[in-house]
C-alpha cells in the first residue's frame, strides 16, 4: 500500500486542480452553445399526451358558466378539467399566502388566469379543444392603481382575507405594509440647508427567460406522480403541489430538468400542478410547454412601482434626512409581495448614512398581472429613485455627484435605519472611486472611423437615422445596496449529501443537492468546493431532485452562499470521516497521523506541511463515506411592524456603475456605449462566472432603463404586449461593453468570505443609464423605461 516507508512531499504539479478561486469551465457550457443541452421543453415520453391551459380573456369577472362538452367530444382529447374536477379539498396554493386558485372558481381576477385544462394526443388538438370551451363571463370593474384599490367603497380583490398580514394593513386590498421610522425626519428636515423631492415611476419588467415554462408529469404505479420540471425551488413546489393533488409528499417525486433561465419568474408555480392533474386523471404521461404568449401570462413579473422621495442635506453635503413612500403593484395574487415590501422598505435608504428616516412601503392587490420575485427583489425600484435623488442634491449643492455619494457612503460599522449594524466590509466609496477611474471610451468614434464608420455605434443603429447630427454624450453614475439570502427571520438553510468512494481505481466525490441550476453556475462551484475540501479531481454532480433535503430557492443571490456552504460543511464531515478511517488503518506507521493538521490534496492524505501519508485509494479501499447535512447562515429577525427595527438581513452586497450614452436629441434615440461596473464579491470562487453574473445583471438593468416594459391597459387591465415582438429586450446590438472591476473584501461570516453576486449589478445599472441620459439632455426623466417621446416631448 506504499505507506510504511518514509513519507514523500506533495508538489505543485500534484495538487488538486479546479478548486475554488479558479475559472473552471461549466460542465454544461459546451452542450448549451452547441444546442445539445436537454432543456425541460425537450423532454419526451413515448406515450405522452399534451396539456394545454385555457386562460381568461378578461381581467375581472364572475364566471357564470363553463361548458366543456364540445371540447370533450373532440377526437384525440383524453381529459378536460375545471375547478370542479380538482381531487382535494385544498384548491389554492402560494409561496406564503395560499390565495392563488389552481383553476379559477366563481371569479377571475386577472387577464390570463387559468380556467380549464385539456389533455390530448397532439398539442394542436389540445389547443383547438380548449378553444371550444364556452365560458360565460359577467365583467366587473377593474382595480388598477392605488386610488381604485384603497377607495372606501373599493371592490375587494380577495374577500374574507385571513392571512397573517391582513391584521395590520389599513385596507384589505393592501397585501402588506412595512414602515421604518428612526430618529425625527421632520426635525432633521427643518435643519437642512437644501431639500429635494421627486416622484418616480418604475415600469413592469418581465424576466424574459428564453426557455418557456415546461415539464413532464408521469403517473406512477404507487398512485403517485414523477414530475420533471424547470423550476427555481423544488421543495417549495413540492410543498404546494402535494396538498392540491391529495397526495403525501413522498408520492410526488420531483426532478429538475434543464432550465432556460429564471431570474425569479420560476419561483412561483406555473404548469406543475396542471400537468400532474392531467397525468393522474388520464393515467398517461402529460407534457406541457408554454409558447411565448402563454409564458407572459404564466409567471409573475417585477412589481411596477410609484415612489415618492424627499432628501435633505447641509450646505457642506452631509445628508440630514430621508422620507419616502413606495407603492408596489402586486397584481391579483400575493406571490412574493410581502417579502418584496420588506426589501423595498429596508433597502430604500440605499448605501448611505442617514440618521433620520420616515419610510413606508406597501404592495397592492389589483386586477393587474400578478407580480413577485425578479432579480433585485424590491431593491431595484428603490435604487432607481434614491440615485436620482442623489444627483438632484449634488446639483443643488454644486457638488460632483460621485464625490457627494462618497461623502455620505456607508461603511463597515454603519448603523442602518432598521437598527442593524453593517458588520462586514462595505466599500461603497471605493467602488465609486474605482468605477470613476476606469478609462472612458473615445468620443464620437464614428468621426474617427470616417467612411469605415459603423452605424451600429450610433443611436438608431442599423436604421441609419443619423450620422452624428444632434448626438450628445452623457455620463452617469449610480451605486446600490442589496441584501443576500432570505431575510426577516426565515429559516434559510440548504442540504447537501456528499459521497466519497473509489471508482475504477480513483477516488471520486459525488455531490447531491436539490439546488436548481438555472444558469448561474452552481454546479460548477459545487464541484470546485468538493475538489478543494476533498482533494479529488473527479467530482460527479448528482441531478437535483427531492430525494435529498431542500436547498432552498435559486434566488436572493443565496445559492453559492447557502448551498455552497452546505456542500462545504458536508465535505468537511466526509473529510473527517476519511481521516478517521486513515488513522484507524495507518496511524501506527507515522506519528503525523495523530499530531499534525491533515488535509486531502491531490488524491492523498497530506500534512499541512505537504508530507504525503497515504493515497486515498488505499485509505478507502472498498469503503464509501456518505454524509448528508444541513447548513444555515446566521439567523435574522422580522422587522417590527410599527418601527421597522430589526436585524433583518444576513449580508449586504454593493455594486457601482458608470454609464456612457450617446443620445440623438432630435429623434430621442439612445445608444448605451459602455456600462462599467465595480463590485465587491467578497471572494470570487469562480472569477469567470462572477464576471458573467455581473455583466448579465448589468444588461438586465439596461433593459428596464431604455426598452423593457409590460404595458397594461389602465381601463381593462389587459396586457397589450405579450410577445417578444412588442416586449423588447436588449440584443447583442443593444448591449454595450461592460468592463468589470472585481473587489474581494472577505465577509468573515460567509463560507470562504464570499458575497452573493448576481443581483447587485441589476440595481445600479438602471439609474446610471438614466443619469447619463439626463446628463446628455438636461431632462428630469423620472420614469423607466425612457422612451423617445420622453426625450423629444412629442
From TrEMBL:
InterPro entries: Ald_Oxase/Xan_DH_a/b (IPR000674), Ald_Oxase/Xan_DH_a/b_sf (IPR036856), Ald_Oxase/xanthine_DH-like (IPR016208), AldOxase/xan_DH_MoCoBD1 (IPR008274), AldOxase/xan_DH_MoCoBD2 (IPR046867), AldOxase/xan_DH_Mopterin-bd_sf (IPR037165). It holds the Pfam family MoCoBD_2. GO terms for molecular function: iron ion binding; oxidoreductase activity. Residues 1-15 have a biased composition (Polar residues). Residues 34-141 form the Aldehyde oxidase/xanthine dehydrogenase a/b hammerhead domain. Residues 1-25 are annotated as: Disordered. This is Xanthine dehydrogenase, molybdenum binding subunit apoprotein. It comes from Streptomyces atratus. The lineage of its organism: Bacteria, Bacillati, Actinomycetota, Actinomycetes, Kitasatosporales.
